[in-house]
Amino acid sequence: MLNSSDPPVLHTRDARGVHVLTLNQPKSFNVLSETVLAELQRLLGEIGADADARALVIAAEGKAFCAGHDLKQMKANPQLDYYQRLFAQCSKMMLSIMKLPVPVIARVQGLATAAGCQLVAQCDLAVAASTARFGVNGIDVGLFCATPSVPLVRNLPAKQAMEMLLTGKFIDAPEALERGLINRVVLADQLDTAIEELLDAICAKPREAVAVGKQLFYQQREIGIEAAYQLAGQAMACNMMFDVAQEGVQAFIDKREPAWRRSRKD
Predict the structure, then answer these.
(1) Domain ends where: 149, 178, 203?
(2) 164-187 pLDDT per residue, tens
(3) What global pTM score does this model have?
(4) Tens of pLDDT along 97-106?
(5) Nearest of 29, 32, 56, 30 to residue 44 by alpha carbon
(6) In this structure, are 71 and 142 located in the same domain?
């Protein structure tokens, strides 16, 4: 049973360099309180500084993945400057996920609502249990989910995102998959297996190429197509200068496995 001494976010790292951050306040549905946001920010900084990190999984304890902001905390501080600081703090944390040089996978075992749905949308990949549900239902309490809309509309077609934002209607995991919010839907007892399949594929690839690719992916999305092609071409040219790319291309020519792939199997 959890008590006040339990950390709000659990952090583990395995020998591969796979980090796991687990939201650890199931009784409060893992809301993103100021404390939780600060702890996530601190831990993301640690992971970003880990030169051997390969991936991050964001998971949660209990029935809910994340129920968004702590509304009780927000109601107790009815000042504009407080709300501005709170949403700036949350936005900074979300952007840190995007800027992390390794892929981030959301492991969604339950309800993800408002800023919790935002967290899923902000991750690079997401795997959900078939019983999970997703919503941006701040509108139900008179608060349009403006900050959650930022990654949501970058995952879903605009009209589908707007419908969720305007109605507060929840969608189930299969619909979230169809709309593009998540990558896979599995039975709850298969979540870890599905996550491991993605991690195995990611960890088999050169860390340098993955880092360059993730950075480019998000940069080019925010600019015009001509500038995007210019940026992408530069990224690929730089990537080709990496030893892993030179070896990989030579191995393809030689019809053999690249040395870095063989070394990971040993």
Answers:
(1) 203
(2) 999 999 999 999 999 999 999 999
(3) 0.91
(4) 999 999 999 9
(5) 56
(6) yes
